[in-house]
Amino acid sequence: MKATGASVLAVGGLGAVAGSAAGQAADLPPLARDGNKIVDPSGNEVILRGVNIADPGEQSRDWRGQTAPETFELATDESEGWYTNIVRIPVQAEFISAGTQAPEPGQMPHGDDWGPLLPGSFDASDVEWYCQTYLDELVDMGAERGAYVMIDYHRHYPVFHQEDHANHDIPYDIWQCDSDGGESWRNSEVCGERGVLWHGEDQVDDIWSLIDDQNIVEAFDLDEDDIYLEPAEISNALDDELHTFWEVIADRYAGDDHVIFDVYNEPTGPYGGDWGGPERQAGELSFPEQAPGEAEGDYDVRLDEMKGWYDLWRDRAQPWVDTVEENAPGHLITIGSPRWSQYAYWAPYNEFDAENMCYTAHVYTQEDMRPLGDYIGEPSEHVPIFFSEFGWIEGGGKEVDTPWMDCTTDPDQDPEDADCEPFIEGYEEFLLEYDVHPLAWCFDHSWEPHMFEHGDPGPDGESGAPDADDWMDYLNEDTPGAWWHEWNQEMAGDRDEFAPGDEPYPDADNEKNSLHIGPGPIDADDDGIQVGDYNAEDTTDDGLHNDFTGDGDTTHDDVTAFFENLEDENVQGNPDAFDFAGDGEVSFADVVELLNEI
Hints:
Blueprint: E1 32-34, E2 37-39, E3 45-46, E4 50-52, H1 56-59, H2 68-75, E5 86-91, H3 93-101, H4 124-145, E6 148-153, H5 161-164, H6 204-213, H7 216-219, H8 232-252, E7 259-262, H9 307-327, E8 333-334, H10 338-341, E9 359-363, H11 372-380, E10 385-390, H12 421-433, E11 437-440, H13 480-490, E12 529-531, E13 534-536, H14 556-564, H15 569-572, H16 575-578, H17 588-596
Helix pairs in contact: 2-4, 3-4, 4-8, 8-9, 14-17
C-alpha cells in the first residue's frame, strides 16, 4: 500500500494481534484470470475460499467486544480449523462518514445501527481516514497470514429500508437527516438513511421501456406512480461517490498484489420485478419469479428478456470499473449485478472491460434461485465467479423478517417450520460440482446470518459481546458457522496453494468468453453478434461473421458497416469472429480482406 506517514489509530487494535501470524506468513503472488479460472504465476488453477467479516468500523464499537484485526486473526487461524485464503471486507458509507460526521470513533453519523446513508456523505479525505484507521492494518495482516483481501464497496440496503422497519420498534427519528448531521451534511439534498437504486440519470427512459415491454406495472398490480426511480441529484451523487471511493482505494493498494477490488456489493433495483420505493416495500422479494397481478408475467432471472436489465447495469458500472483499472492495473476486479447480485447468469453475455475481470453472485435461500447450478454454475463455466455471499438462518432473523435467508419456500410459511437441510445439501452439491470461489457470510456474532452466537449483544446489552478469544465456544449451529468450520477443513488442500512469483501468469487468457455478445437481445435461432446497429452473422459456416446487413450475402454494404464499427467492443472483443486476415487480431487489414472476398 502507499505510505502515508500516518500511524494506524488505536481503534484498529494492531497491538492485540502483533506477531500472531508468524507460523502462517506467506508471500502471496499476483493472480490472473485464465478463461473461467483464477491462476497463480505458474498457471496453476487456484480456488479462493474464505469468509466475510463485518465492516471494521462497525466492529470498533465498544459493545461488540472485538476489533476487526482480532476477527481477521481468528478467521485465518489454521490451529482453530480455519483454512481461509481470502477475507472479504465490506466497507459502508456510514463508517467512512464517521471520520468527520460522528461525535466519537466507531459511531455512525446518525447514531444508530440500522440505516444506510444516501450518497454524498463523504469525500476523499474521509476514505483516506478510513484506510488509515481500519484497512491498512487488515491489508498488512492478509499479506502476513496468507489471505487475499477483497475490499468491498458495500451498498445493499433496499430503497424501501425505512418502510421495511416501520413495524419493528425502530424509532422514526433515526431516519431524519438532522438527527446528528443537520446542516453539516455536505450534500443536504441527498441526506437521509435509506438504500439507493443503481441506475443513472440518462437511463430512465430505457428503464421505462423495459417496464412496458415486460408488463411490470400490470403484472404486479401497480399504478405507474408506484414505480420509483431516483432523482438526478441522487443518481449523480452515487456516481461521484463510487469514483471517489475507488480513486482512493485502488491507488492506495495498487502495490499490494493480494488485494482484490469488489466494485459494487449488491446493486438493488431496478430489475425485472417490483423493487418498491422509499415509502413502499417491494413485491414478494424472495419469490419474485411469478408476478401477483392479474396480467401475465414471468420474471425468472434466466429469461432472455431479463438480460436488458443486466445490459443497463453493465453500461452504468463500466466507468467505475475503469476507475479501478486505471488506478490499479492488472488486479483482480469483481462486481455484482442487479437484484442483490442475483443476475450473474448474464455476466458471460455482456462482459465488463478490465484485464482480469471477475464476477460475484449472492444467493441465500431464495427458492427462485434453485438449483444453484442453473443460475450460478452455468455462468461459472465461462467466467470466474466469486460466490461471495451465501448462507441461511434457521428460524429467521432476530430483529426483522428475513425471508431471503430463513429457508421458507412460501410467503406464508412460518420460519420456525422451515427446513434448511435441502438448502445446505444444495450448497454442498454446488460447491463440489462448480469451480466457484466461495466466501461464507458472516464471520461475526451480529451480522446475519452470523456464524457465532453471543447472546444478545448490542448498545443496550448488560456487557456486550465477549472478546474474540472465546469465539470458538459460540459456533452457531443455526447458520453456516459450524457447517463452514467443518466444510472448510474438508476442502483444505484443494487448489489452495500458490506458486511464487512477482508477475501474473503471462499466458493467461483474459479475453472475453465465447458467450459474450455485448448489449442487445439473445436470439436462440441466430448466432449473430450485435455490432452497432447491425447483427453480424456467419453465413459461410467458417466462424467468421461476414454478413452485417442480414441479406445473406457479403456485399459492399457489409464492408462499410464493418469499417464503421471496427472499434466496436463486440468486434474487438470477438477476434475469432472478425479476423478475416488470420493474423490473430482485428484491424483494418480485416476490412480489406472482407472486401477482397466480394
